[in-house]
Specification:
Number of strands: 6
Structural class: alpha+beta
Oligomer: single chain
CATH topology: Thrombin, subunit H
Largest sheet: 6 strands, antiparallel, barrel
Number of domains: 1
Distance between the termini: 33 Å
Helix content: 10-25%
CATH architecture: Beta Barrel
Length: about 120
């Protein structure tokens, strides 16, 4: 029996980055935490209750760069009372931001691999 099927096209990197979130629908705004990031999208946890398929804007500070991220909520789950987990697919990212994002994801993957190898020792 197969134990789950990974449908992801991109490597995800686990992170803990604070982010400002703005949802067009309902004019909601608040804070969240990026839990993982890839070239295809971002996983975010937040107390904001935003409907699935809503368009959102996020301002992300990843030292030394900042990024404006436009996306659509493609996954939503309530982790616990008042805390939501979102899967956000990018809808608008410039070529320059994609290049920077790809560079940082590769850097983070190397750092996580190095840390995992050190922890094994």
């Amino acid at each position: 029996m197969v134990q789950g099927f990974e449908r992801r096209k991109h490597i995800r990197v686990t992170t803990k980055i604070l982010v400002d979130i703005y949802a067009r629908e309902g004019h909601k705004r608040g804070r969240g935490c990026i839990t993982d990031i890839s070239m295809g999208g971002i996983g975010v946890e937040s107390e904001l209750d935003i409907p699935k398929l809503a368009d959102i804007y996020m301002f992300v500070m990843i030292e030394p760069i900042s990024m404006d991220v436009y996306g659509k909520i493609v996954y939503k789950a309530e982790k616990m009372q008042g805390l939501f987990k979102y899967g956000i697919q990018y809808t608008k990212v410039s070529l320059w931001k994609k290049i920077k994002l790809k560079w940082y994801i590769r850097k983070w993957v190397k750092e996580q691999d190095k840390k995992a190898n050190e922890d094994k020792r």
